[in-house]
Specification:
The protein is of the alpha+beta class. It has a domain of 148 residues: Orthogonal Bundle (Arc Repressor Mutant, subunit A), CATH 1.10.10. The longest helix is centred in the N-terminal third of the chain and has 14 residues. The radius of gyration is 19 Å and the shape is globular. GO terms for molecular function: DNA binding.
Length: 287
């Protein structure tokens, strides 16, 4: 019998980060939380869920245990561009959650991150990116080994709800990536992804309901809100291929067509243009 293909960096990332509590714990750790009690006080999380996530994040190398402290490893700290992109997207496109404004200490202004090319500095959109499968790339290898586990309502954070409709479900993430590279018909999504028709139909309906996709003439297309998800997808991919790489090479190869180089994502301040750093981004100071 032929063995199943090895899961690539994308599939490993979805299995690890397709969980809102994991991302929120990483966020609080970046903001300085290290003790169990600090995480419990800052997040509306049950003791069972917190204990489980701290253990899994430690075993997966995102956190390192030192006595009573849980401290981010290098890979954990490197999640900040993805978390900043989620924060900016939810603040702009899900205003009912009233997330605080972002502040850049470099220029002292309220800001939003701008996805740019490290090589040429130009602002980047899906129109200036060319995506192709790399040596370890295929839809089959980009799926987690198990489906995203179902969680009860009481075990959900609900703080990044619309982001988690994408990151928290393997088929949603795959649909969004496929949509960015031009897939639009149900039959094409089904053929490319190998998704069960029922699961695919369900995820498309949810993405349309959240105004990430729109459907006309039998085709599904990205809305403006959907296109704005690109920084989340790219920073998630960038993190995965840096920290979860497989020996046979990258899953996806991105080229910035404006300058013709391999695309390396950088987030810049939309006010001053300076490259953002994890410690230079925070909540707008009171007063």
């Amino acid at each position: 019998m032929e063995s199943s293909p090895t899961v690539n960096a994308v599939g490993r990332m979805l299995g690890l980060l397709g969980d809102e509590w994991t991302l929120l714990i990483a966020q609080q750790a970046l903001l300085g939380a290290t003790r169990y009690g600090e995480f419990a006080a800052r997040l509306p999380i049950s003791n069972a869920a917190l204990t489980s996530r701290l253990a899994s994040m430690t075993s997966e190398g995102l956190l390192a245990r030192a006595g009573r402290d849980y401290r981010l490893t290098s890979s954990g700290r490197s999640l900040w561009p993805m978390l900043v992109s989620i924060w900016a997207w939810e603040r702009r496109w899900v205003p009912e959650h009233a997330l605080p404004a972002m502040w850049h200490s470099g220029c002292g202004a309220q800001c939003a991150p701008s996805l740019t090319c490290a090589a040429c500095g130009a602002t980047t959109t899906e129109k200036t990116l060319d995506a192709r499968w790399g040596p370890s790339g295929s839809w089959a290898r980009s799926m987690p080994t198990v489906a995203t586990r179902r969680r009860s309502q009481g075990d959900r954070a609900g703080l990044f709800p619309q982001t988690m409709t994408i990151l928290g479900n393997r088929w949603s993430f795959a649909v969004m990536v496929a949509a960015f590279v031009g897939t639009s018909r149900f039959t094409d999504f089904a053929a490319q992804l190998g998704a069960p028709p029922g699961s695919l139909s369900d995820r498309l309906q949810i993405l349309v309901a959240n105004d990430v996709l729109t459907t006309t003439d039998g085709r599904y297309r990205l809305t403006e809100k959907g296109r704005a998800v690109l920084p989340i997808l790219v920073t998630a991919l960038d993190w995965a291929q840096r920290w979860l790489a497989t020996p046979d090479g990258p899953a996806v190869e991105l080229t910035h067509t404006t300058c013709g180089t391999a695309f390396d994502a950088v987030l810049a301040c939309d006010q001053c243009g300076e490259v953002l750093r994890g410690r230079s981004v925070g909540v707008v100071p009171a007063g």
